[in-house]
Amino acid sequence: MGDVSSCPPLTRSSVQAAHAAIKQHIHRTPTITCDTISHLASTPQTSDSLQGTPFANRTPARPRINLFFKCENYQKIGAFKARGAFHALSRLSKEELSKGVVTHSSGNHAQALALAARTHGIPAHIVMPTISTPSKIAATKGYGANVIFSGSTSDEREAVVADVIKDTGAILVPPYDHPNIMLGQGTLALELEEQAKDLDERGLDAVVAPCGGGGMLSGVATALYGTGIRVFGSEPSFEGADDAKRGVESGTRIEKVKTLTIADGLRTPLGKIPWAIISDKEKVKGMYSVTEDQIKAAMRLLLERAKVFVEPSAAVPLAVVLYDENFRSMVEKEGGEQGWNIGIVLSGGNTTVEAIAKLFEPASEQQAGRQEAKLGMNGERVAENVAG
Amino acid sequence: MGDVSSCPPLTRSSVQAAHAAIKQHIHRTPTITCDTISHLASTPQTSDSLQGTPFANRTPARPRINLFFKCENYQKIGAFKARGAFHALSRLSKEELSKGVVTHSSGNHAQALALAARTHGIPAHIVMPTISTPSKIAATKGYGANVIFSGSTSDEREAVVADVIKDTGAILVPPYDHPNIMLGQGTLALELEEQAKDLDERGLDAVVAPCGGGGMLSGVATALYGTGIRVFGSEPSFEGADDAKRGVESGTRIEKVKTLTIADGLRTPLGKIPWAIISDKEKVKGMYSVTEDQIKAAMRLLLERAKVFVEPSAAVPLAVVLYDENFRSMVEKEGGEQGWNIGIVLSGGNTTVEAIAKLFEPASEQQAGRQEAKLGMNGERVAENVAG
Questions:
Q1: Mean pLDDT (chain B, rounded)
Q2: Is residue B106 annotated as part of the catalytic site, yes or no?
Q3: How far apart are CA A327 and CA A323, in angstroms?
Q4: Among A28, A65, A228, B174, which residue has the fewest nearby CB atoms (within 10 Å)?
Q5: pLDDT of residue B4
Q6: Has A81 been annotated as catalytic?
Q7: Residues 321 to 380 of A: which have CB under 8 A from any B CB?
Q8: In this complex, do A307 and B362 lie within 8 Å of one another by their Cβ atoms?
Q9: Statement: B100-169 belongs to CATH 3.10.180.10
């Protein structure tokens, strides 16, 4: 996508310029609050508080946490990825645009690029593994993209992309490892910052965002650097999906990850350019990881209590706020009496009822009607699934 | 609940007065649009258009339908019932209030009354069948109500209510068959009317609401009578749950219904006082019913496309708009070139991930991976469930 050195610098004002460039094309998604979940976040988690009696304990508890959910599930194509794709295209010259764009992705970036290309009236070539789910292929075609199939290894995919570039001269738009993508994704933080202030004039103390390839987390950190709002990243811990956290701890970026975490948007390793931001303690104050059960419990609350339809990746930041004892101790220490106002990035809502059915299928009738899962909070076992 | 004859008359201005009385206590819930679903509604339904390629057919099709979703799933307690309960309490004298309130309900009305009573600082006695789901009992207790168990027949429940009234002097607040409840529920229509106008200055041509006991539908019809906005009711057809439609057709209210439709909020027969409004063709222009599969298909679209978490009952009006050929022919005939702006009442979002898992469990792996269900639209079979 052009020369990286010709991109704007990774600064808050570049994110502001990106926002001005794309805001005609994207939704200013709502920021919502949910008293029940904020109350839960302010209460030590027990099986009762997760199972429908959040008001049983009404004494104010530490840490006091008010949550502000940035609903990128209501963004065009159902995820924040539309921001980066529109920004990337806004940075191309007319001549570059005329050749079309190409990427390899089977997820939200494919649809985002297809939509942005259609809006600009240019071709989008999307390389997808033959084994992609039919609904994702159909959705990408539905946005008018030219879908080209490949094998599923990254070598196979990149070979097909190279062929497309050779044949058409199309410009490669990568999913996260590019400054223009990072700046585009970061625009959500500018809106969240303003919207939280409209809801509570104290504004935000912190933002927690999910981290896969790191394009969005690094963009958010860039957008908020210098504002006093602390930025934290969150990952699944399953099968080493917490590569960014482990990389930051060891001081070396981890380049390969192989995980089937339910948070399927966060399976990718951190990109090189995002790494430069995310490993900078001044910009990202900390990385936290959560278990699959904690992600499911947070996702349940977002669905059943906040009534917002989100994909598992979007539930990861809330899982950190609710269940990570280190995170909670830090908020208690730094937030004091007043507590913290925390922005939570709900990154997307592209899942299906079948996928939810698979995640939460009722315990079989032979079982006792109550499955339990260790959520790792205060050593308590927390009921995760009450059949019925 | 006092004497019915002392209630305000069933007029639009009484609904406006009800709104003024309760608006400090309720949420002004958002009205949202969803381009994808409006496009689907404007396109004859085929398996492709339901399975992720809504843009495959981009030629404008008749009837042209723009949908405006009134999100009462974001109302306090997760359903419109909070409106009626707060209004009923606002009509009681201090002396009446001091004795507390009582009802029998295992659903949204129980929680609504419990919340309204807690807000007024008075006791709420809620009679629930012993077999109620634990999460509903917990939620009702969570709002501070005194839950009293009974058998599950209506005789058993009413006997317990009578005992409570004898013991405490508490005032009975019925779930739907009362003018104050109807006027309270109708307040959602005033907001929807205004919000749709803010989104499109043409305003609404019609509203479709679900109908169970009929308290909300009759309130909506009362609120909009004289505005030119047509009001329609919608019911499940399963096991005779379309009692209001059948009653209106035959001219006699049907007093008993026994159905286990998935739209569990709509299993009750139409109440006497709602009947007087709903059977008046000037006020409710028509009743429509849909199959279980049509409700599921509409619910899937609301979850996966609009990203709003709703209970099955809330999907019934959209199912009518998408799949009822009589309704669609009428819109085509009456709407002409311009089509209709239709308000859809999303009545509530109180369901669980387990319930959704049960509704949409993936086809077993022995099966071909594709279940089909007849949706009854143009005689086509429509793919309902693509495993994976």
A1: 89
A2: yes
A3: 8
A4: A228
A5: 73
A6: yes
A7: 349, 351-354, 356-362
A8: no
A9: no
